[in-house]
Amino acid sequence: MPGVESPFLTGHLLVATPQTGGDVFRRSVVLLLHHDEEGAQGVVINRPLDATVDAVLPGWEEVATPPARVFQGGPVALDSALGLVSVPGGGEAPMGVKLLFGGLGLVDLDIPPLVVAPEIAGLRIFAGYAGWSPGQLEDEIRAGGWYVVDAEARDGFSADPESLWPEVLRRQRGNLALVASFPEDPTMN
Asked: Are residues 170 and 164 in contact, defined by beta-carbon separation less than 8 angstroms?
């Protein structure tokens, strides 16, 4: 029906609240790639690792958006890689790309990089992903573990991914923007 919003959050950002802890999710920003009644999957877009793209996937570094490092996409399936791409123009998906939403898609990393390179505007490689079982994400949001905000097209390909948590919060309206200045260690306040 027109005007009815989906209860699902595909395409949104999950921004960890200050009380969210752990090595992977503390001050993380997660781009939700899929969310429905069967659960949710996304990638942490602000956790670059020390590994270069070329060290993990030779040939893809030239195509990768700087910094050309592998990102820790989440705690699930760390031995697998996902390639998030931006496809300009919103037309048909290029060969080897599965479009998800808003010009973003996943690329098949088994195809030669030169096949897809002319068709994309950005590429980020993630080791692993974040996953939630049915109802788990909704419970975490209700418990105050995540802020749900709109994503911008550039978020997944930020040139300064480590600054994404405060940057995303600062652009929010009202009191949520104030959270960006919350100290890493609340005892230092």
From this structure: no
